[in-house]
Amino acid sequence: MRLILFLATLFFFVDEVKSTNIVDVQIDVAGYKKDTIIFGSYFGGERKEIHPVIRSNDGKFHITSGKLFPEGMYYVQFLPNGDYFEFIFDSDQQFVITTTYPGILDKIKCSGSAENELFFQCVSIINVNRSDADKKIKMIGLLQFRDPERAKELQRELDMLNETVVQQQSYFTQRYPNSISHKYVVASSLPVPDEYNFQDTIERKKADQYVRTHYFDNIDFNDGQLLRSPYPYNMIQSYLNMNLDSPDQLIAAVDHIMKFIMRANDNKKVYFAFLARLLSSDRPKILEYAHVHLLLSYVQGGKTPWISKADSTQLVSLAIQKEKLLVGKPSPDLIFETKDGTKKSILANDARLTVLYFGDYNCDACQEGFSGLLEFSDYFKDKNVKVVGICTNGGDEYKKCFKYAEAFHVSFDFLADPVNGRKAKEIFNLPDTPVLFLLDKDKTILAKRLALPELYKIVSKELEKDKSNE
Hints:
Immunoglobulin-like, 5-stranded mixed beta sheet, 18% strand, globular
């Protein structure tokens, strides 16, 4: 989701450059009781703390250095709530910022830096829209998985709000085309297709395709000032979110992004690491297809020479392991033991749907969710749905798994093994537990890493399909 740009993109060209190369930024905060603030920068799509700043005897906070900081976006964060404001370091790194706490953005001002002076003026003008933007961002996060269509609708509203802001920013910065500020505004602008009839499906698709094709035209991935700002990373994340309709579409989007990243000279390793980190997220689950593609096509394909051989081997191994567990792949099998010591395959049933539950007997989260799984099993036991409990404790602890199952009056198969309990975590790529997998009648992975409400929903939908096909 492309974050709202109000607080990071209204700037001004600095006409005069000071001759000194000494950094001296004075920050005067009325009403702030703490004696420490955090000074940091933007890099790799994240805010990175540089160092704490202690209040000086004059009551102000001084950011000083005998060496200029790299030009780009920086921030000051307040304790303990994490409120922060952003500012720019260009070639001029001596100025004074004054503000109040709380409400640091309401009356923030700067003297001694023309770029930051105009930046803070524009923040004051546009800050009235921040509340609306924050609400939309929060709702998109909450609805992204519960109501994807509503989340997309809110994202379109947020994009429109963003574009309105960008237009206002352009009004101020276009007169200073050589400024860092104008560069940031341009980088956050979406491509604009020719006028078209929104009601015409064909014209609308052509316009959407134009935006997708030209999405990164305004970003120079070789530019260090952009590298040290949020904008390229926001655009990459936003572009991925536009392409979550299918694995093939998302993979094509990743390849499109990589065309630009691979042209980024020394910066490519930073952008690649950011993209890989985004795709490694557990949610939405569709990202896993693209993560596997990225690692196999680019790392295994020898296109990332900046990654060490040892790290490349580890990443490729991870991708191969994840590929085996993609939805649509056959589930791995393991031979475990029943309470009486009988060996049994975890896939040994002919049920229409099989739920594999992986959990440690002494895992707090496992114990909390176990009663819900028992209710699920009772609800679907006469509907050809089988639950198989797999205890992931190994060694001497595996026998405690059966005592745990007995204490909970488990009615479904519950299996454990001194060796394979640990092995299950490796084979099914389980860094933590509990985890639920859902398999179809052929023991193909239908869904995985499900919350219990999701499991109910998917199982019910699958059984409904059977009724409609009768």
